[in-house]
Amino acid sequence: MTRTLQYTFLTAVLVLGAVCSAEILLYDTFADGDRTNTNLPTESAVWFSHPANLTVTPGSLAVNQLAIGNTSSKMWTYFAPNGSPVTLGVGDQLIAEIKFTPRGNMYSTTSKNFRFGLFYDPTDAQLLTDTNSDNGGGRWYDSRGYAVILTLSPDSTAGTIQVGKRTNVSGTDGLLSSTGTYTWNTGSGQAANLSVNTQYTLKLVLKRTAEEEMKVTFTFLQGGTEIATSTLTDGGLGSLPIYTSFDQLFFRLSSYTGTADVVDYNSIKIEKIPAAYGGPLVGVEHVFTAVESCRTSLYETESDVDKNVPDSSKLSVRSDYKAKKSWIKFDIGDLDVSKLRSAVLTVTLNDPRAGANTCDLSAVNDDCLDNIGWTRTSLTWNNAPGNYTSSDGQNPNQPGVTVEDLRIRLDPSKTMAVGTLSFTDGLQGTKISMDVMNTVQADTDGIIQFVLHNSSGLMNFCTHNHPTAAYRPVLTILETPPGADWPIPYQGQTVQTSLALLQWTNPEPNLPGGIITCDVYLGTEPNRLQMDKVTLGPGVNAALVNASNFPHFVPLQEHQTYYWIVDVHDTTRQEVLEGLVWSFYVNDNTAPTVDAGPDQVTWGLPKVISLSGTASDDGRPNPPGLMTIQWTQDSGPAVTISPNDQLNTSVSISQAGVYVFRLTANDSEKQTYDTVKVVVGETSCQASHLSTGQPYMAGDFNQDCIVDLEDFAQLLSKNWQDCTDQLVGCN
Questions:
Q1: Out of 110-119, 164-173, 575-584, which region has the weakest mean confidence (pLDDT)?
Q2: CATH topology classification for 593-682
Q3: Could you tell me where the beta strands, DSSP code E, fall in 636-682?
Q4: Position 219 confidence tier, pLDDT thresholds 50, 70, 90
Q5: Domain ranges in the chain?
Q6: Contacts of 731 (CB under 8 A, 6+ apart)
Q7: How far apart are the C-alpha atoms of 475 and 212, rounded to whole Å?
Q8: What share of the chain is helix, strand, coil (3-state, %, to 5)?
Q9: Above 80 in pLDDT, residue 305?
Q10: Integer-rounded Cα radius of gyration of the chain
């Protein structure tokens, strides 16, 4: 079933974290099995140093590092027209995201073997050809950009991750061949303990935090779980200004002995997030309930590989000798997947499950048509699409496939890892969601199949025909609006009565030379007939919030929800592109400001500590027009705050420790708080160590912050006469 909502937005369901709006510059999932076409944003040619060692199939661009041998491989792709780079203003972000799956073997190494970054060459044209070069035939010598260097390793030998700025732009070094061309951060995190046939995400975020500051953050994820991160702040490193223009993603892998036999790229995505927009994704939401689902079983008391084991309620997953895998199928019809903004699969627990729990989620490749017409009454272990088969329920049929592969994994030539579903202490009805955008984006026939597999303990999820309809597997797809997009105020935003503009992004004309005009509606009901309407001139994408444009609803009233719509007219189209219904809420009240005072360090017990805070408010809402305050204790040995409803108060402390107190200001509608840390020791020495958290010196047996004759009686110490009391020193 499809449910289309006219003012929908998707929030907090993607496992990769908070959702922000983005202009998708490039999102290539290799759906057409081709790497040489450019049709932004869904396709961008990927140029390579060893093209004979690439295998491109729908959803996969696989680099055979083993075949390349003991040399590096390079790849690059462009996401902006030649000569027109993407430029970041203050607050803007540029996000590069690469999803890949290691195949074959992973290799233990301490070397930093995977490098990638975002660049722009200010003097030369884009290089649109394969070549085994890090310098583009000399044209990349002066390229500006930021990069990350890391290790792909299956164990703890992996080195730290480093993020850097290319600061030597006048030499003859390649883009990533010489690490000395960069100014690197000190390094943090390890991309260690990686596994084959598991999808990983490399994410590089450039955020221009100020006019002369760029923050570069790298994140490494396994499924939806962050496993490493590193950050660089550029305020003019290398005596060069920050870089703000970019058009190329370049990446380089060392020899296979430092990475994996095969690095299978599943997608490359580049997004720009404008500073002005801070709201959730908007679009037309389509909700599809699974049309078929069924569990399969390997061995119970005898071979079950050719048995159909349907169940009206549960999809089972386990990976022991009684291995079970479950298939879920969706039919999304003729939905245009090139216009998707997000896609999320949600499954529901059928049985309670305590503790930490995980299972793998994979997708059947779009070009795998094996038994695509299966139903819950016909699916078996041996005819399930992409599964490894067995004749006896204990051993695999295929050569080179292990028993562990049979029980846990799927055929990598027919399936693709999506990620890991995880939860802790789930009850019946607990919902678990996963970003499946790559899978849906690669679809060409409207049929999408997922597989649940590899759980160390038995896990049961709900079927497509579960008696409770709300428990059934659901695929939620958000499609880009056909017309106006990225509303400001964003969907559901709270604004003040002084709101001056309604803003949005207009679509491009359907044909070159077309003229875009807009009708803008505003009212207190989501109905065009009950709204005021203003028609704007060609290309205008903002409307003044004034009585001339919207006479019945301006000035805006407090504590009122307003709805607005932007209908788009395109002279090269016959139909009107009707807008979504967006809303905002008006409230002039701002939250109180509060300061709990400076942190304190003191000594001597018992002790009376004064707490002195400040707070202010705008007098709203009125009534009551008053602000109340309250002191509470966050941590430390329990004490009594008296009085606790005054800005200036005190506490009596009789026990050494670190105390944290919270001051909260409440205007009856909004709250703000601040905390203050109070460190109290019996002596200044103890207070000093409680404050810094540093251990006492090894020879300071009486913990008076100095190793002297009193300690010498127990042990002569190399720290003789060294003082560690940072507050008053030692006498």
A1: 110-119
A2: Immunoglobulin-like (2.60.40)
A3: 641-642, 648-653, 657-666, 671-681
A4: very high
A5: 21-277, 286-479, 485-586, 593-682
A6: none
A7: 43
A8: 5, 45, 50
A9: yes
A10: 30
**Rounded to an integer, what distance in angstroms lies between the CA atom of residue 474 and that of residue 464?**
9
Please indicate whether the domains covering 286-479 and 593-682 agree at the CATH topology level.
Answer: no
CATH 1.10.3710 fits 286-479, yes or no: no
Going by C-alpha positions, the residue among 135, 115, 114, 132 that lies closest to residue 124 is 135
Contact by Cβ (8 Å): 356, 424: yes
189-203 pLDDT tens trace = 777 778 888 899 999
Burial of 543 (0-12, 13-18, 19+ CB in 10 A): buried
Whose CA is closest to 435, among 506, 516, 555, 342? 342
Q: What is the mean pLDDT of residues 343-372?
A: 94
Q: What is the mean pLDDT of residues 635-660?
A: 95
Q: How many CA atoms lie within 13 A of 696 on its CB side?
A: 15
Angle at 548 between CA 546 and CA 552, to 5 degrees: 80
Q: Which of 41, 93, 14 is nearest to 441 (CA)?
A: 41
User: Distance (Å, rounded) from C-alpha 464 to C-alpha 452?
Assistant: 14
Q: Give, rounded to a whole angstrom, the gap between the first and last alpha carbons of the chain.
A: 80
User: What b-and-e string marks burial along 223-256, b requiring 16 or more CB atoms within 10 Å of the CB?
Assistant: bbeebbbbebbbeebeeeebbbbbbbbbbbbbbb
Q: What is the pLDDT of residues 611-629, one digit of tens each?
A: 999 999 989 888 888 999 9
CATH architecture of the domain 21-277 equals Sandwich (2.60)
CATH code of 485-586, in short, is 2.60.40.10
Pair of tokens at residue 289: 């309930």
Specify whether the CB–CB gap between 323 and 455 falls below 8 A.
Answer: no
The first and second tokens of residue 551, run together, are 């006479």
| Statement: the pTM of the whole predicted model exceeds 0.70 | no
Q: Residue 276 — very low, low, confident or very high, per pLDDT cuts 50/70/90? A: low
Question: In 365-429, where do the E strands start and end?
Answer: 415-426
